[in-house]
Specification:
Layout lengths: L4 E6 L4 H10 L5 E7 L9 H4 L10 H4 L14 E4 L3 H13 L3 E4 L15 H4 L10 H5 L3 E4 L3 H17 L1 E10 L11 H4 L3 E2 L5 H12 L2 E3 L2 E3 L4 E9 L5 E9 L5 H9 L17 E4 L7 H4 L8 E8 L5 E7 L3 H17 L6 H5 L1
Parallel strand pairs: 1-2, 1-3, 3-4, 4-5, 6-10, 12-13
Antiparallel strand pairs: 6-11, 7-10, 8-9, 11-14, 13-14
Helix pairs in contact: 1-12, 7-9
Length: 356
């Protein structure tokens, strides 16, 4: 790539915004040129506005950038959005209407019929929905979303099984890290030595998004996967990494060896040279007590999903454990990979060119 795409980050001071900055620093395709956050942060240097919470230093170039007002005027045409859902509902359409490609981590528009909800390894063809958005036709702008942090690991593990054997039923129980609640997240007195068996709207999101992601694009809409699904979502005292216990019923019988082969051979992005894409998107952990968040969440630079404990299920067909890094693969990293896919398809070119 001759020169880097200038990009902006909405919600840059929050935890997902910080993860965007960490992952985009020295990215070969994208360069951060604009940061925006709430009114109380605008006008300040980023280093003064944000309380940096990650385990790598805040880049000095970013620390010295001035935080802008969260308005399309003066913003670059490629925007990574890390906003709360209520704010995103108001703000993201403004940027799309102004001709921006909005690559969003918010849940606000994931289930809209004309907004693609995408995992590049799973349903890249759903990006065609961009062309159905009114902003695309009027200004060249559009909106693309990545899934909920709990859905993305599950769907990556399910996709190769659905392709080869079909899936009729899905039962999943999650053990979700506190970082999924942002900062300051869950109060320590609520989570230490405890499990909280409720995360607002999480179960509904997980069920609906999973079936949309595994669904088929038919014309200008997505037909969800016709499977039955039940999700139980819990918050646990883990910093990063969502663990999920999964049981599935398949349409066609499959042996253990066939399931392991489906996971091992699942490399749909091979040869595309997308910088954030893991070489092996699904990694198998053969140990009887793995995967574990502390030991496995950073596989594939945090972009790989780890599966383990595959065994027969006494109620459905098979059960296994899935682990994914919720703020890398489940948030900022997922959005960046979506943008890389858009770039490879020529959909991040200047708006005037795209519109013409």
């Amino acid at each position: 790539m001759q020169s880097k795409y200038p990009i902006g980050i909405l919600g840059a001071t929050g935890m997902v915004g910080q993860r965007f900055i960490q992952l985009l620093e020295n990215h070969p395709w994208f360069e951060i040129t604009w940061l925006a956050a709430s009114d109380r942060s605008s006008g300040k240097l980023y280093g003064d506005a944000a309380k940096w919470r990650l385990d790598t230093p805040l880049p000095e170039r970013i620390a010295q950038m001035r935080v802008s007002v969260a308005e399309p005027a003066g913003a670059p045409k490629i925007i990574f959005a890390a906003l709360d859902s209520d704010i995103a509902k108001e703000m993201e359409p403004k940027f799309a209407a102004a001709g921006c490609a909005v690559v969003s981590n918010s849940s606000a528009f994931r289930m809209e019929p004309n907004v693609p909800l995408v995992i590049p390894e799973v349903n890249a063809e759903h990006l065609h929905l961009i062309e159905e958005q009114p902003w695309r036709k009027e200004s060249g702008g559009y909106m693309v979303t990545n899934p909920n942090c709990s859905a993305i690991g599950l769907v990556l593990a399910l996709k190769p099984l659905e392709e080869r054997f079909g899936i009729e039923q899905i039962f999943v129980t999650t053990m979700q890290a506190v970082s999924g609640a942002g900062y300051p997240g869950v109060p320590s007195m609520d989570i230490l030595g405890n499990v909280v068996p409720y995360i607002k709207s999480e179960e509904e999101k997980m069920e609906a998004e999973t079936l949309k992601l595994l669904g088929k694009l038919t014309g200008s809409s997505v037909t969800p996967l016709p499977a039955r699904m039940s999700a139980h979502c819990n918050r646990v005292a883990v910093e990063d990494g969502h663990t999920e216990s999964v049981s599935i019923k398949l349409k066609k019988p499959a042996t253990r060896e066939e399931i392991l082969a489906a996971w091992a051979e699942f490399k749909p992005l091979a040869g595309q040279n997308l910088p954030m894409a893991p070489e092996q998107p699904i990694e198998w952990a053969p140990q009887e007590d793995r995967p574990q968040p502390r030991l496995d969440r950073n596989r594939g630079r945090g972009m790989a999903v780890t599966v383990g404990r595959l065994r027969p299920c006494g109620i459905l067909d098979w059960k296994f454990t899935v682990l994914s890094h919720n703020t890398v693969r489940g948030a900022a990293g997922a959005a960046i990979l979506n943008a890389e896919l858009l770039a490879s398809l020529g959909k991040l070119e200047p708006v005037a060119v795209a519109h013409a």
